[in-house]
Automatic annotation (TrEMBL):
Residues 91-120 are annotated as: Disordered. It comes from Lymnaea stagnalis. Residues 194-245 form the Kazal-like domain. It comes from the Eukaryota. InterPro entries: Kazal_dom, Kazal_dom_sf. This is Kazal-like domain-containing protein. Transmembrane segments: none annotated. It holds the Pfam family Kazal_2. PROSITE patterns: KAZAL_2. Gene3D superfamilies: 3.30.60.30.
């Protein structure tokens, strides 16, 4: 090292020398794209290092870039511009990770000609609404009764990352009341107070029945559950939407004459931080059908088929799709009265 410094006619400073091999820099945590994780705040000092680096011409010194005003704005550095664009476009998730934000070197108005006027902030565009969550009950101990369902969506960036107007809270989040009756663990019958149907403030029709009665259209699943509670019946949601006219007959019919009954089912489960939802599908069922004979005789399925559906799983925290799975239903194709328990 001394010879190299000497040949280059450079002084040797002993304070800059340590014994042993030079230490390696700690690697930056990777998220699979070669960039550090994206922070959650536009003011986070690491936000610029989590994005694609700017071209050399604008990496240092002042730059002229986009703003909420009618004309571009001057920024002390490219990173200052990134933080401003982040705040005006909806947050860190709206920033590009694989390319730099367009800007020109130097302050605005000092280049070739006057700066081009900017349009007013655009209307925001949004991702689709997530499905409503399961009922979040007020009574956390019993986990039943009145509660609230929530859904949300996010601001989606434009391809050119143009500024958008300030987003109102109601545009990215919504909620509605819900109700699930508390039941007796021994009999399965609803118990406790039933609220008024005026609790339900959203129209989202479902087809269902009170106990084993006839199929009927309800304004919402909330109204179905309250109606069943008031009638001391168990609610059965057949499917979302208005009832098919063929579904208006009574559900209790004789086993071998009417079975199997076609029942609409839908996979809708929350567990392990995920909310998984499948499309409604119709399967054959021998339940709720009558048998003639002694008391111990019941209607059972004697032949089956498998029906497979695709299920989309969403993250409960981000409401973004994360995986797809398959679910298999066992559908009855023949019913027969047999002795024994159901």
């Amino acid at each position: 090292m001394y010879q190299e410094r000497c040949i280059s006619n450079l002084p040797l400073n002993n304070e800059n020398i340590i014994k042993g091999k030079c230490p390696r820099d700690n690697p930056v945590p990777s998220n699979g794209s070669g960039l550090p994780p994206l922070p959650t705040s536009c003011d986070d000092p690491t936000i610029c290092s989590a994005l694609a680096p700017p071209p050399p011409g604008i990496a240092e010194g002042p730059v002229c870039g986009p703003s909420n005003a009618e004309s571009p704005k001057s920024y002390p550095t490219y990173c200052d511009m990134v933080k401003a664009v982040c705040k005006s476009s909806g947050g860190p998730t709206s920033l590009p990770r694989d390319s730099a934000i367009k800007a020109s070197p130097g302050e605005c108005g000092k280049g070739n000609g006057p700066p081009k006027p900017q349009l007013p902030p655009s209307e925001p565009i949004f991702t689709p609404w997530s499905p409503y969550s399961q009922c979040l009950f007020t009574d956390k101990l019993r986990n039943c009764g009145e509660g609230t369902q929530v859904k949300n969506r996010q601001v989606a960036p434009y391809d050119d990352f143009r500024p958008v107007r300030q987003v109102e809270p109601y545009e990215t989040g919504a909620s509605r009341p819900c109700f699930v009756a508390c039941v007796n663990i021994l009999t399965g019958a609803p118990e406790g107070l039933c609220p008024e149907q005026s609790l339900c403030n959203e129209v989202d029709p479902v087809c269902g029945s009170l106990g084993a009665g006839a199929a009927k259209e309800f304004k919402s699943e909330c109204e179905l559950n309250i109606s069943a509670c008031q009638a001391s019946k168990v609610p059965h949601k057949l499917y979302s939407g208005s009832c098919d006219p063929e579904d208006g007959s009574a559900l209790r019919r004789y086993c071998e004459e009417a079975g199997p009954v076609q029942v609409a089912v839908k996979y809708d489960i929350e567990k392990d931080g995920e909310h998984c939802v499948g499309e409604p599908v119709t399967i054959g069922s021998c339940g709720d059908l009558l048998c003639e004979g002694e008391a111990g005789t019941c209607c059972k399925a004697t032949k089956f088929e498998q029906i497979q559906v695709d299920v989309q799983c969403y993250s409960l925290s981000t409401k973004q799709p994360i995986s797809q799975i398959k679910h298999v239903y066992i559908s009855a194709i023949e019913c027969q009265c047999q002795a024994g328990s159901p």
